Each structure stands twice: as structure tokens, then as C-alpha cells.
Amino acid sequence: MISAYILIHISPGNTEKILAEIRKIDNIVKISVVAGEFDIVARVQVKSLERLLKATDKIQMIKGVNKTTTQVIEKEITL
Amino acid sequence: MKIRRKYLFYLLAFSSSIIAALISGIDVILEKYLKNPFVFGLSIFYFGLLIAVFFTIFFSISYKGKSIGERTIDPSFKKIRLLKKEELKYHILAGAGNAILTFGYFWLLILIRDPSLVLPFSQVVILYLVIIESITEKNTPTLVEIQSSVIVTLGAILGSISLSGTINLESLAIVFLIVNPGWVLQSVYQRKLKMMRINNKSNDAINIRMWNVAFACFFTIVFVIVYDLYTGTSNFVESLNAFVNHFGLLTLVGIGAFFSYVFYIRALGIGKASITQAVKSSIIIFAIPVSIALAYFGFIDPISTDPVLILIRFSGIILMLLGLISFALTLTKAYIFIKMRPGYPIEVTMQKLWDINGVDRVTAVAGDYDFIVKIRTRTLVKGYERILRKVESIEGIKQYKWQSVLKEWENI
């Protein structure tokens, strides 16, 4: 299983519509709306890099998404 | 389906309370037929175990590649399974906690026929959990959490206070030294089990509940058999008779208890045990319509209309709600995105980040950044004082960015 964070920049005024579209995407397990350099942080869990590409592609196809940066998770410590 | 994590936590904890309030009503009806508390408690455990095994098997049925339990109750659930070696210790402790709690309750019922005056003090268990967490948990409770816990506890005591029943030092000692520690033992180790990773996935609430009731049932049977041998009573045999004679009502209690606990255990996997317990104490509010219905049908005495008692209870419920709202509104979450200078080992930096109080998750990533750290704090000021200052002091960090989380959704 491959996990990754996708950091999303969006154009102003489209947040709710974009969020509604992102929430429909299957492999996204968590969506955080954040204040700062990015606008949305999405966590993706997929079986292969090809599926990660598909998930990223679906996000980029949403109207109002300006840029995405994918950070693939190598190691994690969590509660 | 994605839902906001905060909503999911409250949904699970409140659902658990509502179901628990309903089954407490059925308990009252059953007590009319099963006067002996040992027989009553044991027969409930038999059904609890049977129902838990039945539902765990049912939820294991696979449909289109996913089990029914995974689709409906807990996404971490795959199928019924045997315990892993590393879980055994925690299950024994959680099961013993459940059995001790039940034993304490039996003892109270034998000692004083009506323990309604001392039972509200079992709500103090929230404060026990706060103390335990301040010693054992990575994220020690903050001042806001301690304040809110005290408010909810006092509110819960006042909200469930009764002016009938008996109170004496021995009964209070049973509540404070047996019932409450039993509940703490159960909650703390159920949370540890829920936080465990089994086969690289979060542990599931369904198997945890099934094994908890199995261990609790085993410990209680052993205790009752020893008690019978010592006192010459036949509680164990009577409990087997009750099992046959009150099949319908006991089945309802078993089903209710199963789902109430599964939701509670899932909530324990999201929030701290003290906060989950505080939300669960809302059972006092949900029990009001159940009590009115029971009084209407003559199963209990008519509800007191003494204005002083009503005022005390109403004040207690308001206090409790204020405490719960304070829990819900004061949690702040954030991501810290970190870039490192070359030449600093990843493992060492990860551990240093993880050791900071308030850090929920440390992720080493490949891309623009080297680490993404998830933070949970009760106030932004504390976030700066307790977290950012410590992050800054870690060697090798070139740059960091704090991004506050405004809203969050997660897969159910």
C-alpha cells in the first residue's frame, strides 16, 4: 500500500465546490482545509503508483485547482 | 463516505450512550425477574458472549471483496480472528477490568438494595482517566481538558443524583476503589488495543469487543464458581436456568451492549479515554425519557417532582453540556511542513519530532519537504510555546511552515 499527501493550491471562491469533488474520489482517506501556503491537504492510500497517478490526475482535472504537489510517504510514526 | 472526524467521534460516543440508555431500561425490567445480582450479571455475560460471536461471524461475511462489518461498522474490520500474542496481555487486563467493575456492582447491590445514591459517583471515573493519562499518555491533558473534565464530572454527578437509596462509607469505598478502577482498567486497555496495528492496519472494534466479553465472562464465571463453593450457594446453576427462562429480554440486552461497546471502542480510537468517557456520560440525559417510560408503565416508582431535585439535576445537565461543548470547540489541529539540511539522519530527527508533546503523527516524505508533522493542541499559544519552540531547537531543520487545519474530513 502506498500513502501520499497531495498539497493542493486552488483559486479563490471555489473551495466548497472543489471540496465536494475531492470528497467523491475513492482513494482519498482524509481531506484537510488548511490556512497557509496551500489550501487543501489530501491524504491518499493506493495500491500502486499508477493509482496514485490516477488520483492526482482526478484532482488536477477539478475546475479551480491550480497546482498540486505530491509527497509520497516513506515512513511514519503515529499514535 | 467521508465525514468530519470530530463529528464521527461525537456520533460514535453519543450513539453508544443512547443504546446504553435503552438497555439500562431493559435491565430495570429484567431485575424484576432476576433478583439475584450474580445470576443477573452472569446471564447477561452469557448472552453478551453469544451475541458478540454471532455478530462477529455475521459481519465477517464478504460481499464484493469487503466484509459486511468493514462496510457498515468499522473500516478496520476484516473478519473474526484469533488473538495475536501482543494483544493477549491487554485483553486479559481489559477483561479483568470489566469483571472487576461487574463484581463491584454486584457487591453494591448485595450490600445496599438501592445503590442509586452512590452510583452517580461512578462518573468520577472521568477524573481517574485524566490522572492516568497525565502519567501514561504521550499527550498529557491540558488545563482546558482538566477543567472541562471536572465540569462534566460534577455535572454528571448532579445530573444523576438521587435523594433515595442508601449511602454509607463502605458503599462509597466500593464505587471509588472497585467500580471506578475496574472501568478505568477496561477503558485504558481497550484504547491501547484500538490503537494497536494488526497486520499493518488499525485494530478493529468488533474483534476487540468479542474478546473483551469472552475474557470478562471467563473471569466472572471463575469468580462466581469460587464464591458458590465458598458460601454453598448455587448462583452458577441458577444463571444457567435464567439463560433459558429469559431468552428474549437477555437477547435484547446482549445486542444493545454489543453495539454500544463497539461504538465506544471505535470512539476510543479517535479521542482520549477521558474525553470519550465524558461524552459517554451523556447517558444521563438520554436515560431521562427511558426513566419516564419505565415510570409510566409502572416498572419504577413515579419520577420525583420535587422542585429542588429537578433544579439540581437540570443544573447538572447544563454543566455537563457546557463541558462537552468546551471539549468540542477547543481542539486545534495543524500540519508542520519541514525541510532539512543534508547530513542529519532521518530516523533520529523523526524520533525527536515524535517526542514533542502534542505531535500526533510524524511522516517522512519524498518530495519538496522532508517531514510532515500533524499536531493536535488545545490552544494556539500552547502550539507555539510547547511545539514550535521545540521544533526550532531540533538540529538540522532548515525551514518549517505551520499550516492550521480549518476543517477536516475522513473516511468513516
Structure, described:
The complex is a heterodimer of chains A (79) and B (412). By secondary structure, chain A is an alpha+beta fold. Chain A is built from 2 helices and 4 strands. Chain A has a 4-stranded antiparallel sheet, with helices on one face. In chain A, a hairpin with a 4-residue loop joins strand 2 and strand 3 (40-46). In chain A, 33% of the residues are buried. Chain B is α+β, with helices and mostly antiparallel strands. Chain B folds into 2 domains: 2-329, no CATH class; 332-411, Alpha-Beta Plaits (2-Layer Sandwich), CATH 3.30.70.920. Chain B has 15 helices and 9 strands. In chain B, a hairpin with a 4-residue loop joins strand 7 (359-366) and strand 8. In chain B, helix 1 (5-33) runs parallel beside helix 12 (283-296), helix 4 packs antiparallel against helix 7 and helix 5 (125-136) runs antiparallel to helix 11. The model of chain B has no long low-confidence stretch (mean pLDDT 84). The A-B interface holds A 1, 4-5, 19, 23, 28-38, 41, 69-79 and B 2, 138, 195, 200, 333-335, 337, 346, 350-351, 354, 360-369, 372, 401-411.
